[in-house]
Amino acid sequence: MKKEQTPLVDDYVTKIDFLGKRKPALVLSIILAIIGIIAAVAIPTGMARLGTDFTGGVAVQFRFEKPVEIDTARDLLAKGGYPDADLQEFAGDNKVLVKVQRSEGDLGEMSGGIGVVFKNGFPDNPYIIDSTTEIGPTVGKKLQSDAFWAVVISLFGILFYIGWRFEFRFGMAAVIATFHDILAVLGIFFVLGHEINLLSITALLTIAGYSINDSVVVFDRIRENLKKQATTKQKAGVSETLKSLINRSINEMLHRTVITSGTTLLVLLALFFIGGEVIHEFALTLIVGILVGTYSSIFVASPLLLLWKKDGKLIHHREEDPSVGGPGAPGGAAPQGTGPLGI
Description:
- With 343 residues, the chain is of the alpha+beta class.
- It is built from 10 helices and 4 strands, in the order ααβαββαβαααααα.
- The chain has a 4-stranded antiparallel β-sheet with strand order 2-3-1-4.
- The longest helix is centred in the middle third of the chain and has 39 residues, at 198-236.
């Protein structure tokens, strides 16, 4: 009795046609990227809402006799004419660092004005001013430049690693997707009028690392399925289109993506709602970044591989096994790299 051969590819049906939605996703991604580019141009020209780290200002450090509720201090400064003040608390020393943007008047007048607010708001909690420091515009410009180069260097590092780990086109797809994530988050916060400071840049770099991790997992499954497809094609004569294979790979990793992103979002939501005002913006940036990064790993990075095929090929094998194909294989089997998938 002849043993029935089990199909290795045709028995799998893709549940969600992600690549079928790549054109609407491309339009959305282009819009987000354009807004992000506008935001990136607005930052050095002063059109964006920047923190004192970038614009320059005054930093005044107060030391109180008793502990101070940081939220109460923030509310007092907002009512006293300093709504954009940036506060940092030093636990154990009863110290509060206040950063405000530079206005008319000298440093003494500004620190005195903030001190009056605290004196009236905390009449039973005397303080002394430890230091008053001016953050000049030159320092702010340098921090802008350093932040820009930090993002650029991280993107080149990603390109080098992914290009070495997979292939150059995989690296470029990952970099484009990561750059898209950074621009998208930057653009969203620019449109919403949120302040952009060094903590925002830290969040953007964190987003870049998270996004590339998700893309690498999907890329690894695509590469694994490409190699399996090569063996299947030689042994069973079963073929699958590149679009279907990438779609299948995304679906196979979808549960992992949902679980990882979902658990990360749960932690970030906890930080956002109960973590306090100090990390509120940081947590919000990460929340938006996780959502955008998950979207891009599915609808940006993977479709780019479908668009970028050199001579119809996605992966070039450097070695051929004569036992499964090649010019010298028995029966004149076709060499690798000539099938529908280009593998």
